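Feature request disguised as a bug: please show the residue count (460) next to ORC1-type DNA replication protein in the output. Example input:
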Amino acid sequence: MTDSGESEGGNCRGHHLNSPEANTKNGDVRGNSATAEGVQQDPNDPANDPLFIREGDEDGSTSQIWADRDLLSIGTVPSPDRIVGRDAEIKSVAGEIRHLVHGSQPNHVVIYGETGTGKSLVSRHVSQRLVDTATARNVPATSVYVECKKNNTETRVARTIARTLSNKSNSDIDIPRIGLGSAEYYDYAYDIIEDHYDGIIVILDEIDMVDNAEGLLHELSRAREAGHTDAYIGIIAISNDIDFGQKLNARVQSSMRTTDFVFEPYQSGQIEQILEYRRDAFQNGVVQKDVIPETADRSADEHGDARKAVDVLRIAGDIADDAEAGAVRPEHVDKAVKRAEVNRVKETIESTSPQSKLVLYTFGRLTSSNDRRFRTSEIYSHYETTCGDVGADVLSYDRVGQILSTLALLGISESQQVGGGHKQGVYLEHQLIKDTDVIMKAVVESDDRLLKLHNGNYEI
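Example output, currently without the count:
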């Protein structure tokens, strides 16, 4: 990045030593318009690659739209005064774990709610404030956050806990990344806790994604009772599955004895306030009047998910920035809603097999031509053609039927059993339940064979 002096012609790194600009004396550049307007950039310098750097944006600071785009990143945790609509939940969770401040056992908590309802945000916020208060009262404490969707086995969770504790405590213990089981990682964690802390809070986000959640919860909730550590361990488990606690065996339910909370989806006014608190991600005055209320209203109507609303606002800003529109307008929100949905569908189908994408592509092409329900036999017939077009093996009829059932389970389509009338038996009909353009854009972008076959992209 250059300073202001460089941007006004003080930097000659882009010139050849024998160029007229380099030989200009006494700063007289009146006869050279390129130099008078600014330093001529070397087109061969990767720092000036026009694929990524717009003219006039060499230092990345002249975006008409963005002031601090990171404020709209999903992982950005807002400051306490920007947490909206969760005052009661903050007090309730704090009331359950506050005992750690006084050097005694906190209650364990399970928080339920749909995605984007503030479960993780409140848990991390309250835990950090607890740690700060405990530390100020000479009760050494810390918190550990584990994203269980990425760490979906007991061993991975135990490793994350141990390595996080090691980093936070500046321990000189070298904890291997691979090659150990959960018991060894627990031992590392307990050793660090014993040396550095009187208590910790462990936040297990999306606990239902862990393949042995019962073993994990039983281990942590009984650690002090089993003599692994004298420190107090409090657990905040977060789940989108409202029935998660009921699925735990009696032994775990007994050792946990949790207090449960349910976080309701955000209302339109709350989402609007959340987005208003992120307005400073943009340059002053570029977000038009109706953009934030419209984003909030649509998000509240569709899902009440604050994270999705923030994501839509970020995408709308990117669309406006890419188009050099000079302002973020309601039409950018319309496009952003579809793009965000495309991204979510892509996330869903990226974990499916290449053959599943061929079936979905076929299903989408059929729906684009005629938006109705299709028999398995109709889809299968056109699927065979798609396989021929991309040079793929053709699966059996039954296997394609199974793939269609999986697509229904993923919420992309729905299947309905239909009576065929006299002597025709019973058969299944399938229909896409998401926007066909969204489906097609997502599936085409997820598979190079289909991108080539489609010979282009869907403009969303």
